[in-house]
Design a protein that fits this description.
Oligomer: single chain
Number of helices: 13
Strand content: 15-25%
Helix content: 25-40%
Number of strands: 15
Distance between the termini: 35 Å
Largest sheet: 9 strands, mixed
Length: 419
């Protein structure tokens, strides 16, 4: 697979998804990708009301516009500048609301997109489900594990579709990586190292017409778990996916290490998630060094996959140490020249071979999520596998927060929704 396999065309993109997800093993590991191989019904589009038109909400609106089966039929935000920016992305006659309950009461929509701060996800999802509407909600699911579970239970009770945004599950490079891991190319996976490192304070300037809690909600404990729910959720989903399970327990340490500016959430987190069979996921995220950025290193006995960078590496046998070689020579009665003053030991430095490309390109897989959601709304049946993956990723992120707060190992919760 070469980088040129990826193009900007929609057809190529969908073909690439289908190719990467083909086979029985992948059908079990990523059942949601079947939508890439199923024609999307055209005609009347599913009408979506978007709650939250900040940066992420506007990005979702633009992706919805690319779909063949969905349209934005209403927008809602209680912050006027966000609404003004969103109006430029939708037809002029699109209804706008400052209160999501008014949008629900006005009808005219089939489903709701929730793209608001984390602490609002659960209540707005409940309101939308109670209004008889399906819900697509941004990750992480909610601010507490109890609310994550309650969202699923409410959707089931109301007979409505609940889908959570995790775009890596539709990413052709990640699907290709998973397929090659499933085929045994990197041997037995025993560890995943994941990181999301940035070098910025994660604090935005507050306009005169807003409050800090409104603009910098990610920095307040009651509104967000910070790095864990806003970033780690993505990568914990990848860990669960490639390790084909959920962690049995988590241990970790979190601190406000660098940005001592009154924030309430950690700016530096380090965790170990333990999985069955002694396998581990090691996660770190910090806000004062961007050298290693966002990446996952999926480490097996015969190779390593770095899906975020689109590379796969085969293991290279380590060179024999000079002292070991000399001992073997003596035991065999062999003689050879021994360098005087030369190095007898070399540190095991990182492998620098370029590896092989998993393929790359410019596209946004969020579009495919919404096409799947549109078909789920039409059929009344959720896209297989998506909700379970998102739920477990959100639980893992909040479990990690608990481990850091308590300074104790936290076990995987036993009273979770069953799938």
């Amino acid at each position: 697979m070469s980088d040129s396999d990826f193009t900007l065309s929609r057809r190529k993109f969908l073909d690439r998804i289908a190719m990467a997800s083909a086979g029985a093993a992948m059908a079990a590991a990523a059942p949601w990708t079947a939508i890439a191989q199923t024609p999307v019904a055209t005609g009347t589009r599913v009408r979506l009301g978007v709650i939250g038109t900040g940066d992420r909400g506007r990005a979702l609106i633009q992706n919805i516009a690319k779909t063949r089966n969905c349209t934005v039929a209403a927008i809602c935000d209680n912050y006027a500048p966000n609404m003004d920016r969103a109006r430029k992305l939708v037809p002029a006659d699109t209804p706008g609301f400052s209160d999501h309950r008014a949008m629900l009461d006005a009808r005219g929509i089939d489903a709701v997109v929730v793209a608001t701060p984390l602490d609002l996800h659960a209540s707005q999802t409940f309101d939308s489900l109670d209004a008889g509407l399906h819900v697509w909600c941004e990750k992480a699911m909610a601010r507490s594990i109890a609310d994550c579970s309650a969202m699923i239970e409410r959707a089931r009770a109301k007979g409505k579709v609940l889908q959570i945004g995790h775009q890596r599950m539709f990413h052709p490079t990640y699907l290709s990586a998973l397929k090659r891991a499933k085929s045994g190319e990197i041997g037995e996976i025993t560890q995943i190292r994941a990181s999301w490192h940035r070098n910025n304070k994660w604090r935005r300037n507050v306009p005169a017409d807003a409050t800090d809690r409104q603009i910098n909600w990610r920095l307040y404990r009651d509104r967000s778990a910070g790095l864990m729910t806003e970033l780690a959720t993505h990568q914990l989903q990848v860990c669960n996916w490639f390790l084909d399970g959920v962690p049995t327990r988590a241990i970790g340490s979190g601190s406000i290490c660098f940005w001592k500016d009154g924030r309430e959430v950690y700016d530096h987190v380090a965790l170990i998630y333990e999985y069955g069979g002694g396998r581990k996921a090691i996660y770190s995220s910090l806000l004062n060094n961007a050298r290693y950025g966002c990446e996952e290193q999926i480490q097996g006995s015969t190779g390593t996959i770095e899906p975020e960078l689109g590379r796969i590496y085969q293991e290279v046998l380590p060179k024999q140490l000079a002292l070991q070689r000399m001992q073997q020579d003596v035991a065999r009665g062999h003689k050879r020249t021994v360098p005087i003053g030369g190095a007898t030991w070399f540190p095991e430095l990182p492998v620098t071979t370029p590896g092989e490309s998993l393929g790359w390109g410019e596209y946004d897989e969020t579009m495919l999520q919404f096409e799947g959601f549109g078909e789920a709304v039409r059929s009344g049946r959720e896209v297989p596998g998506l909700l379970q993956q998102a739920y477990y990723a959100s639980v893992a992120s909040l479990m990690g927060e608990q481990a850091m707060d308590s300074g104790q190992a936290v076990e995987w919760p036993r009273s979770l929704v069953a799938f």
